[in-house]
Amino acid sequence: MIQATRTNLLQLKERRRSVINCTGILKGRRQALIKKFMEIGRPLLASREETRQRYSRGIEELQMSTGLEGQDYIASLALICQRQLGVELRDMHILGLHYRDLQQLESASRSLLERDYDYPSATPHLDETLEQFETIIEEMLAMARFEGMFRRLGEELLRVTRRIRVLEERILPQLQVDIRGISHYLAERERESYYRMKLFKRRVSRKGGLGEK
């Protein structure tokens, strides 16, 4: 229970101002987060859709290649073409938030001469299959660069929104209740003091009048 004094009333009003200012700052940060979130989210979702479509085309070409080249040849080619791609994780910051960024050190896409198979004797479907799946790897690595940033922005946006809700729905209303309660108590006490003072003056004036007689 907060003691109903003028000092506490002033402190509560100052705290209310601080909460209102803090809420305004948080809302400004939330707007910046939403803007950046949308900037990254739209192209990221579009890239995912393009990758899904490319994957469907790649599967179709793979099925055609398997039918023409033979399953054993495709399986042996898959073993021959295996390789490791160099990537690196780097610490990055966006809007004051830390996240891990994936840096690609080499390209997944290769020319016909760089692929380890006899491409002149292969069907165009095989060439198209390899090109499609190498491009898919490129796109997935590119999307992975934004996944950490996108997730970090989403987490911070949720945290800021929760803080705003706590300030607006719990702390600020309680401060308003406490301020109204103390203000009402002090106003009642002032009226009582004023009324007692009037009664005192009346009694004093009456006693003064009787003394003169």
Q: Considering DSSP H and I runs of 4 or more, what fraction of the residues is helical?
A: over 70%
In the CATH hierarchy, the architecture is: Orthogonal Bundle
**What is the number of helices?**
3
At the third CATH level, what is the topology name? Answer: Helix Hairpins
State the domain count: 1
Task: Return the CATH class.
Answer: Mainly Alpha
Kindly estimate the percentage of residues that lie in beta strands according to DSSP: 5-15%
Give the biggest sheet. 2 strands, antiparallel
SSE order: HHEEH
Question: How would you characterize the overall build of this protein?
Answer:
The protein has about 210 residues and is mainly α. The protein has one domain: Helix Hairpins (Orthogonal Bundle). The chain has 3 helices and 2 strands. The chain has helices at about 5-70, 70-80, 125-210; strands at about 85-95, 95-105. The protein has a two-stranded antiparallel sheet with strand order 1-2. It is rod-shaped. It starts with 5 loop residues before the first helix and ends with a helix. The mean pLDDT is about 85.
